[in-house]
Amino acid sequence: MTEIQLKALSKSYGGTKVLHHIDGEIQDSEFIVIVGPSGCGKSTLLRMVAGLESVSSGEIFIGNRVVNGLEPADRDIAMVFQNYALYPHMSVAENMSYGLKIRKLPKDEIRRRVEEAADILEIREYLDRRPRQLSGGQRQRVAMGRAIVREPSVFLFDEPLSNLDAKLRVQMRLEIRKLQKNLGVTAIYVTHDQVEAMTLGDRLMVLNDGYVEQFGTPIELYENPASIFVAGFIGSPAMNFIPAERGDDAQSLKLANGVQIKKESGLNGSGPVQLGIRPEHFVEASDGPFALRVGMLEHLGANTLVHGTLEGTDVPVTASLDGIRIIENGTIMRFEPAQSNFHLFDAGTKKRIVS
Amino acid sequence: MIENRPYLAFMSHLVLIFGVAIVALPIWITFVAATHDEIRMLRAPIPMLPGGYFWENLKETLFGSGLESLQRVSVWRMLLNSLAMAMMISIGKIAISLISAFAIVYFKFPFRMGFFWMIFVTLMLPVEVRILPTFEVVASLGMLNSYWGLSVPLIASATATFMFRQVFLTIPDEMLESARIDGAGPLRFFWDILIPLSRTNIAALFVILFIYGWNQYLWPLLITTDDDMTTIVMSIKHMLEAAEVSPQWNIIMMTALLAMMPPVLVVVAMQKLFVQGLTETDK
Questions:
Q1: Hey, are the CB atoms on B199 and A73 less than 8 Å from each other?
Q2: Closest listed residue to residue A51, CA positions, set B107, B108, B180
Q3: Residue A294, CA distances (Å) to A218, A305, A311, A319 in order
């Protein structure tokens, strides 16, 4: 049983603060994905949990222990690195067993664990090879094998799939997920790829500039993004944001191009807002209030992405339509998305407006 | 590049053959001289084709009375002295440099950069520059006429430390982090990861340092007065100092040939690693 708790965790390099007061609780055998753009501090956070970076303030609990002062080897964790960090001069089997050898486990126990892990990952025939004789995907498996044999209570992944090609990435993603479920080990996974984050994580922690923007399940994040940042980051293609003004009657919304929309539910407060609508929620309607001047099409096969601008403005809008569609450049298309799919954000604070 | 320009090909071959001749001819003459008997070598012109006395000369040089004029110590003893000196210098230098580069790259300690620059400064102080103070130190330590005296002052130098520092810097940080997660302490990391990863560089450095040590002349000349400590390179000079008798060219040349052999053998034996160590960049 391994819960992880982060309590008011901060990290500074000299005078620069890169992580601000991170709180979070991770349940036993939960898969947590830390996601954010590069430079948001996600890797630093993971490395603090691993013990590779010192903690400036706050506490990290793994199980019931505060691990702030513990060496990485004593934290009962295993880590998979982005470039795998396999020892190039050791065979696959030696790579996997090195940590166990240092812990002075009996030889037959080491062999049992290595062979077991090799069977799970289907790398048994490569056990005698050197890492340089393996392909990227195989090295990735060896790196995972090295983590598995240690039988840790926490797995840490630092963008482990970013060096693989797209197809392999999808396959390894599923395997990592399956493996973690089967072993029942708590896992923290860092990535900048929101698709990876959505498919892997039980819960996602979205980091931006060293702050936690939102911490919740993928569906929560998709349906109720807490801020413009989360809304724009989660979901692909990204959400559209249309500047709008709340009417005095708390019932209407005036879009940037002057079009008035009658709201079914009331609106709190007044002043400028950002209206967020996901491309897949645009529904074609001949008398819909949203007029889109078509600029460019992207044919993805299953659907067609229509890029254009809100008629009368230069606000970029993207709509996703089913199937293959051929639409003339410059055509005006009209849409009426369901109001339940509207996301309103305060233009000043960038936070979600709860109505 | 595929080009067909006969004139250019001819010229470049000519230049190359000329270069080879300049380097190889003296060695050929040395070899030829080592295969004739003493009488033939004193007659003009000097022979250009090998004679039949190679084995006799070899036996005479290594185990016989050798050169009559000065031979108080046998050639194999001098070869042994040279070997001991060269090995102590190269192994000692590599060991010390590995450890100091390890400290500089992987540890944070006060005045780290200060120490780094102190090591750096020694680059400007080769033995030739500090020869008197170094002699004084070695003499006071009672190391004159010993292998220690021959090798220790030459061990201290910064070049190898720099090279290993550079090698360690190319090893990705994840290697260290991964070893830390595996539970390897600093010494285990050093033995199990760093040394195997710098294997080729160690080999390359060994070749260079062995030749450097073997070819030492000035320093051994200065601190050895005992004939038992004479090195082979020193002895060749002594051999020409035969004042009363005519020089025994066949023996002198055989000694020179023997003096050339160990560095050649080291280079040939370690050639593959040597080239890898100097060219390989990725870890």
A1: no
A2: B180
A3: 31, 10, 9, 10
B96 min Cα distance to partner chain A (Å): 23
- The interface predicted TM-score of the complex, written ipTM, equals 0.81
Pairing type for strands A271-277 and A343-346 reads antiparallel
pLDDT by residue (tens digit) across B246-271? 677 888 888 888 889 999 999 999 88
Look at A99 and B172 and tell me if their CB atoms are within 8 Å.
Answer: no
Residue B146 DSSP symbol: S
Do B213 and B150 contact (CB within 8 A), yes or no? Answer: no
Torsion sign, CA atoms A117, A121, A126, A131 = negative
Q: Partners of A61 in the beta sheet?
A: A5, A66
Q: Are strands A186-191 and A154-158 parallel, antiparallel or unpaired?
A: parallel
C-beta of residue A264 within 8 angstroms of C-beta of residue A340: no
Residue A292, token pair as written in the block: 């889109």
**Euclidean distance between the first and the last CA atom of chain A, given in angstroms as a whole number:** 40
Q: How far is A83 from chain B, CA to nearest CA, in Å?
A: 8
B166 CB near a chain A CB, below 8 Å? no
Question: Cβ(A167)–Cβ(A135) under 8 Å?
Answer: no
* B180, A73 Cβ separation under 8 angstroms: yes
Peptide bond into B262 cis (omega under 30): no
Crossing angle for the helix pair B54-62 and B75-106, to the nearest 10 degrees:
70
Model confidence at A275, pLDDT cuts 50, 70, 90, reads very high
Task: Show the tokens assigned to B108.
Answer: 């944070």
The answer to whether the Cβ–Cβ distance between A83 and B183 falls below 8 Å is: no
A87 vs B181: CB contact, 8 Å cut-off?
no
CB count in 10 Å sphere of residue A283: 14
Mutate which: B171, B177, B182, vs A, most A CBs within 10 A? B182
In chain B, where are the structural domains located? 6-75+225-281, 82-212
Taking the C-alpha atoms of residue A339 and residue B106, their distance in angstroms, rounded to an integer, is 59
pLDDT tens-digit map of B205-236: 999 999 999 998 888 988 888 878 888 888 87
CA dihedral sign, ordered A209, A211, A217, A222: negative
CATH class assigned to B82-212? mainly alpha
Measured between CB atoms, which of A72, A82, A88 is closest to B283? A88
Q: Cα separation of A286 and A192, whole Å? A: 39
Residue A226 C-beta-side C-alpha neighbours within 13 Å: 14
Residue type, A272: P
A211 phi and psi angles, rounded to 5 deg: -110, 150
